[in-house]
Amino acid sequence: MKRDIASLDQTFDLLVIGGGIYGAWTAYDAALRGLRVALVEKSDWASGTSSASTKLIHGGLRYLEHRDFNLVRVSLDERRRLSELGPHRVRPLRFVLPVYKGARVGPVRLGLGLWLYDLLSGRNQPVPRHSSLSRARVAEELPFLRRDGLRQAFTYGDCQTDDARFTLEIVDGACRAGVVAINHAEVREILTTRERASGAAVRDRLGADTIDVQASVIVNTAGPWAPNLGQEHCTDLRLVKGAHLVMPTLHTSDAVLLMTPDEQRVFFMIPWYGRTLVGTTDTDFSGNPDNVSVTETDVEYLLDSANKFLEVPCWSDQDICGRFAGIRALQNENERAPSDVTREWKLVHSSNGVLTSTGGKLTSARRDASFIVDRVMAVLGKHSSERPTESEPFPWAPRNFEAWFAESIKRGVSLGMDEELATNLSLRYGKEVTTVHEIVEGDRSLADRIVSSLAFCKAEWVRGARDEMTMTLSDLTTRRVPLSVLTPLSRQILEEAADLVGNILGWDEERRRAEVGTVLRPRS
Ligand SMILES: Cc1cc2nc3c(=O)[nH]c(=O)nc-3n(C[C@H](O)[C@H](O)[C@H](O)COP(=O)(O)OP(=O)(O)OC[C@H]3O[C@@H](n4cnc5c(N)ncnc54)[C@H](O)[C@@H]3O)c2cc1C
Predict the structure, then answer these.
(1) How far is the CA of 417 from the centre of ligand 1 (A)?
(2) Contacts of 31 (CB under 8 A, 6+ apart)
(3) What is the pLDDT of residues 246-305, one digit of tens each?
(4) How many CA atoms lie less than 13 Å away from 267 in the CB half-sphere?
(5) Residue of 8, 61, 362, 371 with the most ligand 1 atoms within 8 Å of its CB, for mutation
(6) Which residue minimizes the CA distance to atom 35 of ligand 1?
(7) Diameter of the chain measured on Cα atoms
(8) pTM to 2 decimal places
(9) What is the pLDDT of residue 524?
(10) CA–centroid distance, residue 20 to ligand 1 (Å)
(11) What spacing in Å lies between the alpha carbon of 49 and ligand 1's midpoint?
(12) Does 294 sit in the ligand 1 pocket, CB within 6 Å?
C-alpha cells in the first residue's frame, strides 16, 4: 500500500469519500467490477466508527426483541459468508448468556429467542447451535460470574474480528485491484457542473495542497460525518454514541451477554487480544464527531453494569486499561430510544447525484456496498450481473485454512515466537504473515513482544510502516497494532517505535519528537 497523492489528479468513474468499512468495501467491489476508483479518507483507514465497534460479526440477538427479523437473517447470512471468505479475519466466539432470578426475560423466552436465532442462521454456519449450561457448570467454567441468584445459562455462537484490521485488509485488496487510495486526505467541498456533482476538492492533510478530483459518480461513506458534506437528507441522521472500556482479562475464551442493571439494555464482556471489552452505551450525540469521547458518566455506567455481575474482584477505574467511543449514524426515528433505533442500512440519492450510505453494520457492510456499486454501475450505464465480493476470498485469505494455520504457527515458533504470538500474527495477517516472518528472519530481536502481557511484536511496526500506509505514529499504535487501545504506552516504547518507523519513513528528529508528543497527549 503506497500513498501517492499526485495520482488523484485524473478522472475517475467513482470517488468514494470515507475510508471506514463501507468505503473500503465499496471501492474494492467497484474496482473488481472494472471501474476506475479513488478512495479518500480524511484521517486514517478505519479511524472513525470502524475501529470503535464491539468487533462482532453477528446477527444481533438483541434485534430479535425489536422484531428486526430481516436484519438478523441477512446479518447471519453475512456471518457465514465472511467466515468462509476470510476465516483468518472472522473467528467463532462462544457466548454465555446467564439467567438470574427475577430477570425481565426469563429462560423460556430466552430459549425461544435462541431457537429462532439458530433457525434464521440456516445451514453451514461457523458456530454451533445454542445449548444450555447448568448453574454448577457456569460456576466451574466462568468463576468470575456472580453466583448469587444465578439459575442457569445458555450458550450460543457468533463471530469476532479486529475491525480496524478488517477494514485495512479490504483497503489493501482495493489497492491491489487498482484503486487510488489515499489516507489523510479530506474532501472539503463537492464540486458541481450544471448542478450535478462532478468531483471534489481534496486537501492533503500531510501537506498543503488541495487537488480537484474529477469523478463521474460520488459515493459518500463518511459515516457520522456524512452530513458535513452538505447533501440534503443527510442532516436527518440520528447520531448515537457507543462507549467501551478495555478491562483486564477474565481468563476465559467465552464472551458474556448480560442485561444492564435497569434491565433495559444488553451489554457485553468480550475477550479481545488478552483484555476484556466491556460495552456498550447508547446515547444520543450532538456535536462534532471528531470530538467523541468516553465521559465519566459512561465509565460509571459501564463499571456499575459489569460489577453487578462479577463475583470477585470488582473493577474500579484504576483497573481500566483503555477506552474508546464511536458514533452510529442511524436513520432518524426520534420516537425511539437510542438503543431501539433500527440498524438497517439505507442509500440516499441526492438531487446532485451524490449517493450517501447511512446506518448499517460492520457485519453487513460487504453486502450493502455491493448494492451501492450496483447503483453506481446503473448510473454509469454499465452492465453488471455479478457481485464479485460474494465469492472472492478476502485479500489476505490463505488457501486450505486449517493446514495453513497449523504450519504458520509452527513457522512463527521456529523463529523464536511464543505460541500465542505466532497464533495472533497468523490471524492478524493471514497469508501476508510471511512478510512478518521475513522481517524477523532479518533481525530476530524484532520477534520480541512490545509489551510483555500482549501478543504483538516489533516486526509488526516495521511491516506497518513499510507495507500498510502508516503515515503517523498514532496510525501505527492505534490501528496497525492496537496497543494504545489496550494499554497506556510509555514514552520509552513510543520513542522506540518512532525511531524504528522513522528510519523507514524518513522522519527527522523533530518529526519523531512531535509524533511521540501527539500520541502521549492525554486522551479521554
Ligand atoms: C459502539 C458501536 C458498536 C458497534 N458494534 C458493532 C458490532 O459489533 N458489529 C457490527 O456489525 N457493527 C457494529 N457497529 C456498527 C459499525 O461499526 C458501523 O456500522 C460501521 O463501522 C460504519 O462504517 P462506516 O464506514 O459507515 O463509517 P466510519 O467507520 O465512521 O467511516 C467514515 C469515515 O469517513 C471519514 N471521513 C469523514 N469525513 C470525511 C471527508 N470529508 N473526507 C474524507 N474522509 C472523511 C472518517 O474519517 C471515517 O473514517 C457498532 C457501532 C458502534 C458505534
Answers:
(1) 34
(2) 37, 174, 177, 178, 179
(3) 999 999 999 999 987 676 788 999 999 999 999 999 999 998 999 999 999 999 999 999
(4) 28
(5) 362
(6) 18
(7) 71
(8) 0.96
(9) 44
(10) 5
(11) 3
(12) no
Q: Is the CB of 223 under 6 A from ligand 1?
A: yes
Assess whether the C-beta atom of 43 lies below 6 angstroms from ligand 1: yes
Ligand 1 neighbourhood includes 359 CB (under 6 angstroms): no
Cβ of residue 272 lying under 6 Å from some atom of ligand 1: no
The region, left, alpha or beta by phi > 0 then psi within -120 to 50, assigned to residue 223 is: left
Question: CB of 470 closer than 6 A to ligand 1?
Answer: no
Instruction: Using the mean position of ligand 1's atoms as its centre, give its distance from the Cα of residue 281 in Å.
Output: 16
Contact 279, 302 (CB under 8 A): yes
Task: Kindly state if the Cβ of 29 falls inside 6 Å of ligand 1.
Answer: no
Helix (H, G, I), strand (E, B) or coil at 129: coil
Q: Give the HSE-up count for residue 101: Cα atoms under 13 Å, Cβ half-sphere.
A: 6
Smallest CA separation from ligand 1 atom 49, residue? 48
Residue 314 per-residue DSSP state: P
**Structure confidence at residue 59 (pLDDT):** 87
Contacts with 241 (C-beta within 8 Å, 6 or more apart), sequence order: 281, 282, 283, 284, 285, 292, 325, 326, 327, 328
* Tens digit of pLDDT at every position of the chain (524 positions): 999 999 999 999 999 999 999 999 999 999 999 999 999 999 999 999 999 999 999 988 888 887 888 889 999 999 999 999 999 999 999 999 999 988 888 889 899 999 999 999 988 888 899 999 999 999 999 999 999 999 999 999 999 999 999 999 999 999 999 999 999 999 999 999 999 999 999 999 999 899 999 999 999 999 999 988 876 656 678 899 999 999 999 999 999 999 876 767 889 999 999 999 999 999 999 989 999 999 999 999 999 999 999 987 689 999 999 999 999 998 776 667 776 677 789 999 999 999 999 999 999 999 999 999 999 999 999 988 899 999 999 999 999 999 999 999 999 999 999 999 999 999 999 999 999 999 999 999 999 999 999 999 999 999 999 999 999 999 999 999 999 999 999 999 999 999 999 999 999 999 999 999 999 975 54
Centre of ligand 1 to C-alpha 223, Å, is 5
Q: What is the pLDDT of residues 276-288, one digit of tens each?
A: 999 999 999 998 9
How many Å is the Cα radius of gyration of the chain? 23
Residue 226: name the closest of 42, 368, 374, 379 by CA.
42
Question: 66: CA distance to ligand 1 center in Å?
Answer: 22
Using the atom order of ligand 1, give the atom closest to the CA of residue 185.
Answer: 43
**Is the C-beta atom of 204 inside 6 A of ligand 1?**
no
Q: Which domains does the chain have, with CATH numbers?
A: 5-50+164-233+350-390 (3.50.50.60), 90-159+238-336 (3.30.9.10), 401-520 (1.10.8.870)
Q: C-alpha cell of 273? A: 487480544
